[in-house]
């Protein structure tokens, strides 16, 4: 199959078609290609015969130029064609044109009924036997209507694409803002986490346990369920665990008794927890009781350690007072400021 695409206008003012060869199998041609219907053949015949009528008027603006003039322009030949004696140039051109048109018309009209043509590209079903699409290919009104429909569709799709591009730009701007906000939040979260870790380093383990409480009741329930699932096979393990729990509880009681014996006599306001609107029942919460006991022991040990530093602190205060008196009596003005470290 040989198809042609339109090229830009040449120097002679006419559009040219450049051939493009496309190889199609013979089986496809036999199976899908079909001859043109009679109405299309009649349209082709009318087009070919109208060439001769358009050549009739020499002063008509729609007059088709002769083939000899086109050939001379394309080849840019300076050699004059030879004419037979007794005939003018115009007569020879008319005769040549008429002969060429008749020859081409006879050949095409003889071959077109037998020539197979591909199905129309405007048809949605290539195997359809309808001749409407083929007739529309040779109809100027149908072609113009099809062009207007395509132009309206093109304008609609163009406006839609512009709207979609604008929407995409807005969405991209919003996405950039969201990403910037997300980066800010992530940076703030990292700094907050880092600061929290730094602050937790100086906390006492008891305070950390208060900040991160553990649901001991849930843990006990899970341990009880695990013991029930294990059954008799794990009876020995349960006895060992219970004995270990008894030993640990006895050790804790002994430590508490020792701490109470070593604890100095404090006022009732210090030994007893302050009463508030919400009272805590320490007897019903052994975990809280254990934590409070450890905290009280820690405070007592801190007080015991700092009691030995009281004489040292009193001596340091006396020494400071003596030094201040010495500086006041011996130095004045700039020397006094320099002694206290207030110099430039």
Automatic annotation (TrEMBL):
Biased composition range(s): Polar residues: 269-281
Annotated region (Disordered), positions in chain: 55-97, 112-136, 153-179, 193-285
Biased composition annotated in UniProt, kind: Acidic residues: 235-248
Origin superkingdom: Eukaryota
Pfam families: CENP-Q
Record's compositionally biased regions (Low complexity): 120-132, 153-164, 249-263
Biased composition range(s): Basic and acidic residues: 193-219
Name of the protein described by the UniProt record: Uncharacterized protein
Lineage of origin: Eukaryota, Fungi, Dikarya, Ascomycota, Pezizomycotina
């Amino acid at each position: 199959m040989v198809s042609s695409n339109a090229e830009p206008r040449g120097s002679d003012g006419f559009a040219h078609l450049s051939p493009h060869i496309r190889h199609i199998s013979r089986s496809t041609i036999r199976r899908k290609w079909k001859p043109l219907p009679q109405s299309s053949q009649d349209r082709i015949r009318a087009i070919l015969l109208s060439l001769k009528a358009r050549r009739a008027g020499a002063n008509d603006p729609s007059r088709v130029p002769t083939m000899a003039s086109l050939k001379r322009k394309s080849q840019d030949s300076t050699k004059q064609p030879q004419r037979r004696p007794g005939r003018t140039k115009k007569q020879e051109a008319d005769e040549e044109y008429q002969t060429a048109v008749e020859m081409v018309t006879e050949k095409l009209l003889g071959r077109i009924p037998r020539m197979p043509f591909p199905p129309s590209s405007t048809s949605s079903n290539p195997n359809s036997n309808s001749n409407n699409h083929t007739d529309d290919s040779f109809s100027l009104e149908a072609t113009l209507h099809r062009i207007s429909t395509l132009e309206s569709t093109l304008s609609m799709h163009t406006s839609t694409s512009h709207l979609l591009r604008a929407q995409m730009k807005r969405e991209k701007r919003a996405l950039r803002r969201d990403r910037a906000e997300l980066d800010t939040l992530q940076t703030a979260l990292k700094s907050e986490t880092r600061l929290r870790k730094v602050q937790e380093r100086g906390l006492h383990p008891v305070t950390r346990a208060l900040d991160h409480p553990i649901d001991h009741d849930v843990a006990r329930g899970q341990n009880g369920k695990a013991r029930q699932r294990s059954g008799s096979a794990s009876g020995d393990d349960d006895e060992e665990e219970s004995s270990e729990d008894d030993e640990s509880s006895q050790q804790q009681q002994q430590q508490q008794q020792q701490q109470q014996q070593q604890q100095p006599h404090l006022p009732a306001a210090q030994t007893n927890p302050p009463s508030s609107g919400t009272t805590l029942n320490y007897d019903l919460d052994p975990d809280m009781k254990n934590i409070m006991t450890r905290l009280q022991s820690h405070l007592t040990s801190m007080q015991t350690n700092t009691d030995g530093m009281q004489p040292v602190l009193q001596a340091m205060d006396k020494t400071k007072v003596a030094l201040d008196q010495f500086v006041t009596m011996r130095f004045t003005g700039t020397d006094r400021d320099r002694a206290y470290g207030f110099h430039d």
